[in-house]
Amino acid sequence: MIPSTTCRTARRGSAAVEFGLTIPVLLGILAAVIDYGWYLGTGSAVLNAVKDGVRLGVSAHYGEDPRPLATQAALDILTSSNLPCDSDCTVAATIEDRSGYQVLTLLVQRPYQAPIGLVPTPAQNGAAFEMLLEHQDLSWYGF
C-alpha cells in the first residue's frame, strides 16, 4: 500500500502543469473577447454618429445646405465619443434624387486599431445612413 503523503506530493505538480497548459488558451479567449468587444463598441459609436448626423442634416433650415451640417455633426459626435477623425478618416455626405425624392446619405469610414491585437480583426469601422430631406426643393441647394 502507498502512503497517502506520496500521492499528494505527485498531484501538486500535475495541477501546476495543467494550469500552465490551459492559461494560454484562456488568455487567447480573453484577448479575443476584448478585441471584438472594442470593435463592436466603436462600431456602435460610429453608427450612432452617422445616424445623428443625418438626422441633423435633414432637418436643416430651408435654403441651407444639409451636407456640411450632417458632416460636421458626425465629426463632433465622434470626437465627443473619444473617436476623433484624423486625416485617415472618410466622412462624405451626398444628396441623391430617387424617384422624385431627395435623399441625404452620410458615409463614415474610420480605421480600427485593436487594443490587444492577438486575434485578427477588421481594419476599419464604417457606417452609412440615409434619410429623406424634409425640404424637397433642390433649387435651394444648387441643383
Layout of secondary structure:
Elements: H1 4-58, H2 66-80, E1 90-98, E2 101-111, E3 124-132
Antiparallel strand pairs: 1-2, 2-3
Report on this structure.
With 143 residues, the chain is of the alpha+beta class. It has one domain. 49% of the residues lie in helices and 20% in strands. The protein has two helices and three strands, in the order ααβββ. The chain has helices at 4-58, 66-80, and strands spanning 90-98, 101-111, 124-132. The protein has a three-stranded antiparallel sheet with strand order 1-2-3, with helices on one face. A hairpin with a 2-residue loop joins β1 (90-98) and β2 (101-111). α1 packs antiparallel against α2 (66-80). It is rod-shaped. The mean pLDDT is 88.
Number of domains: 1
Helix content: 40-55%
Overall spatial form? rod-shaped
Order of helices and strands: HHEEE
Mean pLDDT: 88
Strand content: 15-25%
| Distance N to C terminus | 97 Å
The radius of gyration computed from the alpha-carbon positions, rounded to a whole number of angstroms, is 26 Å
State the helix count: 2
Q: Structural class of the helix and strand makeup?
A: alpha+beta
Total beta strands: 3
- Which strand order spans the largest sheet, edge to edge or round the barrel? 1-2-3
User: Are there runs of 5+ residues with pLDDT below 50, and where?
Assistant: none
The profile of the biggest β sheet is: 3 strands, antiparallel
Q: What would a concise description of this structure say?
A:
By secondary structure, the chain is an alpha+beta fold.
